[in-house]
Specification:
The chain crosses the membrane at residues 9-30, 50-72, 84-103, 118-136, 286-311. It is a single chain. The chain is of the alpha/beta class. The chain folds into three domains: 5-145, no CATH class; 151-271, NAD(P)-binding Rossmann-like Domain (Rossmann fold, 3-Layer(aba) Sandwich); 278-467, no CATH class. Helix content is 51%, strand content 10%. The strands form three sheets. It has a six-stranded mixed β-sheet, sandwiched between helices. Strands 7-8 form a two-stranded antiparallel sheet. Helix 7 (231-238) links the parallel strand 4 and strand 5 (244-247). The protein is flat and about 80 Å long. The N and C termini lie far apart (57 Å).
Length: 471
């Protein structure tokens, strides 16, 4: 059944807004009727402009907070119990912010008035918000159970494990909402055991076409042990598609805690496309914009000086633009101060080295203190890059890296950056093998990505710049 996702999100937003409006209205009435009359006696509660402004701003605040926390993403498949606890937690923390920022300096007779006001607001916010969300998620769950709502699912695999996974899901007492459109094989054409239950749609290399053609929303990977060398290639093919990806775990995955309990009781590992929570991604982007804007303004005299020095150092353009590959394989043009002589790559792409005679004298100084990278803050400002992230490469070198290290594809999950953990721990790479060596550090960053680690990398980068330890 076709799902009207926009309508469902609109319902969540409408009910969340209603809960926020009710909570503020009750708080305002409570304070005017029970807290303030002894000092500010009034015959009728004044529902004036201040009241309506409070309604507007607190409601907008809650909708923004819910958006940043990701409450309006993946609305069709969520645990009701988890949603209840997440909603209560966000309501408590969000209410504390409102009280500390807007209400703590209001007049009260005793501190008890603060506690009572907070309790009234929190309770009247939690009850309708949790109730409305529980009703919506329960309605969704019942539609799934009644098979009125489902998710087109593609099975990757064709033999014993695929048969068992398909059988386990189909024989569940409560339906999981999976609607299998077919399966793709990993090996060349042989006798496929699962073919008696599902149609063969092609080989795994054709998944991009199959996902688009059958509007696949979830991919379940159930390949045999002998086929595990294909797993990385399968994951890489799925990176650029907006689908849920889950895989049957092995014993090691279970021991190290990668497997989470599913509501339908089948152990599966979910391969996450989004490696940062929504609020962290938003915080990272806001930080990128603010930091880039402020820094470009503060160092503008230095930028002008560098531009003049580049212009005087050798004939040619001041800025150097080159196509690089960004997040999800999207190309963009990186901007740097030109540190090499004009036409330095007239014989084709070349990596620089310590004794590279293509680098100008001033270019060598810029590289030592990484001054040539400063114009990239413009790339950050327009959203093509981030301040912290794996360094972007050219497609020419990506192809060479992928031949030896197919897992390079994973670093395209995030925006490329001006600095990275790889640049901090390894530095510039002069060969493809060095690029692959540096790749290890960038993969470690992705597996541990967080706003805190970004700040840590920035701290080390500043030390490197001040000490002149760039290439």
């Amino acid at each position: 059944m076709k799902k009207n996702t926009r309508r469902q999100i609109a319902l969540y937003v409408a009910f969340d807004a209603l809960g926020a409006l009710m909570a503020y209205a009750v708080l305002y009435t409570f304070r005017k009727q029970y807290i303030e009359p002894d000092v500010f006696p009034v015959e009728n509660i004044p529902y004036d402009n201040i009241f309506y402004q409070g309604l507007f701003f607190t409601t907008a605040y809650w909708l923004l907070l819910y958006t940043l926390l990701g409450f309006y993403k993946d609305i069709w498949r969520r645990s009701r119990l988890v949603e209840i606890f997440q909603t209560i937690g966000s309501n408590v923390l969000g209410s504390l912010v409102i009280f500390f920022v807007f209400i703590l300096d209001d007049w009260v007779a005793t501190y008890k008035d603060y506690y009572e006001s907070f309790a009234v607001y929190l309770v009247t916010l939690i009850i309708p918000t949790v109730t409305f969300r529980f009703i919506l998620s329960t309605r969704t769950n019942r539609r799934i159970q009644a098979r009125k709502l489902w998710f087109n699912t593609l099975l990757v695999g064709s033999n014993e494990k695929a048969v068992k996974l398909y059988s386990d899901i189909e024989n569940q007492r409560n339906t999981t909402g999976h609607h299998f459109v077919g399966f793709v094989s990993v090996q060349e054409k042989i006798e496929f055991l699962v073919e008696k239950d599902l149609p063969l749609l092609g080989n795994y290399k054709e998944m991009s076409r199959i996902i688009d053609e059958y509007q696949v929303e979830e991919v379940l990977i159930a390949i045999e042990s002998r086929e595990h060398e294909k797993l990385e290639a399968i994951i890489n093919l799925l990176e650029d598609h907006d689908v849920r990806v889950k895989s049957i775990p092995d014993t090691y995955d279970i021991i190290v805690g990668k497997v989470r309990m599913e509501s339908y009781g089948i152990p599966l590992i979910e391969v996450k496309h989004e490696i940062m929570p929504v609020w962290q991604r938003t915080a990272k982007r806001v930080f990128d914009i603010l930091a880039s804007s402020i820094l470009l303004l503060l160092i503008s005299p230095l930028l002008i000086f560098c531009g003049i020095m580049v212009w005087q150092s050798s004939p040619g353009k001041i800025f150097y633009r080159q196509q690089r590959i960004g997040i999800h394989g999207k190309p963009f043009h990186i901007i740097k101060f030109r540190s090499m002589y004009e036409d330095a790559e007239k014989h084709g792409p070349q990596l620089s080295s310590d004794a590279d005679d293509r680098i100008t004298p001033w270019g060598r100084i810029m590289r030592k203190y990484r001054l040539d990278e400063f114009p990239q803050f413009y790339n950050v400002l327009i959203g093509e890059m981030s301040i912290v992230g794996p360094r972007p490469e050219r497609q020419y070198y990506i192809d060479k890296i992928m031949d030896k290290a197919p897992h390079y594809k994973h670093i395209q999950k995030v925006k490329p950056g001006i600095t990275s953990w790889g640049m901090v721990k390894f530095g510039y790479a002069s060969t493809v093998d060095e690029m692959i060596e540096r790749l290890k550090f960038d993969l470690i960053y992705i597996e541990n990505v967080s706003f805190f680690n970004d700040l840590k990398i920035l701290f080390y980068t500043i030390l490197i710049v001040l000490q002149g330890r760039g290439k």
